[in-house]
Design a protein that fits this description.
Helices cover about 35% and strands about 15% of the residues. It has 8 helices and 12 strands. The chain has helices at about 30-45, 65-80, 125-140, 150-160, 185-200, 215-225, 250-260, 270-275; strands spanning about 10-15, 50, 55, 60, 85, 110, 115, 120-125, 145-150, 170-175, 205-210, 230. Helix 6 (about 215-225) links the parallel strand 11 and strand 12 (about 230). Bound molecules: zinc ion (ZN).
Length: about 280
């Protein structure tokens, strides 16, 4: 096992997502006010990145830039220094509407660079849309987080970096455990790490997210392997088979416990910004 002791671990909290509802877990924050409060608790618990989706008045996913603006302002006011990452994922809009919030110039935005299956549909990321989203991120100074649902997405990110479509070292997140996409497979996970290190350098930071029961598995693999970890109610609403997670902060606390187990300090927002090459907030 790699020597990871003492290496700060960045915790990302994916607070809401597009799918979970209050019926799944009453702790899922839906309104902007709920989202800001839940993010604040998670920030206090140790998260330094907030991965954000927004919902409309009926609780359905939307890409409405005005909602994203209110959420971004709320997080910046209540969690000073925290990294705000807005989702350009495909469940909340179609085509270029997915990037309509990028002129808000959040610190980061998610970027899917290829297509794959989701539980009940195809997750479509056509090349022209991927190129456009990447160009918008470059234009507005937004750092992408590459969502790698498949090995090819890591290689695609490298190709985009070589062509100048991505600034700096890409920050890749391995996503495992989405039904009908890549399962939580340890050999593949290890190969993902090797691929990131080969393409982007030994010290390139990377992150991992697991869906549902795979969340804690991927948290453990990432923390013990020197990566960074994503948690939150977007990906998983349960603590275990019998108990719902009481909050996003409770899921962050599970990752903090893993950091203690593997003797890694939890990165504060300053360290997280340094690790990711992000400027200090204005
Ligand atoms: Zn998301």
């Amino acid at each position: 096992m790699a020597d990871v002791k003492g290496k700060p671990c960045v915790i990302c909290v994916a607070i809401t997502g597009s799918l979970p509802t209050k019926a799944n877990n009453p702790a899922v924050p839906i309104t902007v006010a709920e989202q800001v409060e839940s993010t604040h608790e998670a920030f206090e618990a140790g998260a330094s990145i907030a991965h954000c989706h927004v919902r409309d008045d009926e609780g359905k996913p939307t890409s409405d830039p005005e909602r994203f603006a209110r959420l971004k302002e709320g997080i910046e006011a209540h969690c000073p220094g925290m990294i705000v990452q807005l989702s350009t994922g495909g469940r909340s809009g179609a085509g270029q509407a997915r990037g309509g919030m990028l002129p808000l110039r959040p610190d980061m935005a998610s970027l899917s660079v290829g297509s794959n299956n989701f539980p009940t549909r195809v997750y479509e990321n056509p090349p022209d849309l991927v190129d456009w989203l990447a160009a918008e991120m470059l234009r507005h100074g937004v750092k992408p987080e590459i969502e790698a649902f498949d090995l090819s997405h890591i290689l695609r990110a490298h190709e985009m970096q070589q062509k100048g479509q991505l600034a700096g070292t890409p920050y890749v997140q391995f996503v495992m455990g989405v039904k009908n996409a890549m399962p939580a497979d340890r050999d593949v996970f290890d190969y993902y790490i090797r691929t990131v290190e080969r393409l982007f350098g030994k010290d390139a930071p990377w992150c991992a997210a697991g869906i549902g029961p795979a969340q804690i598995v991927l948290n453990d693999w990432a923390v013990s392997s020197g990566g960074h970890a994503r948690t939150g109610l977007e990906d998983n609403v349960r603590l275990d088979r019998d108990r719902l997670a009481p909050s996003n902060a409770a899921l962050v606390a599970r990752v903090v416990a893993l950091c203690e187990k593997y003797e890694r300090p939890v990165a504060d927002w300053r360290q997280a910004r340094q690790i990711l090459g992000l400027a200090a907030p204005m």
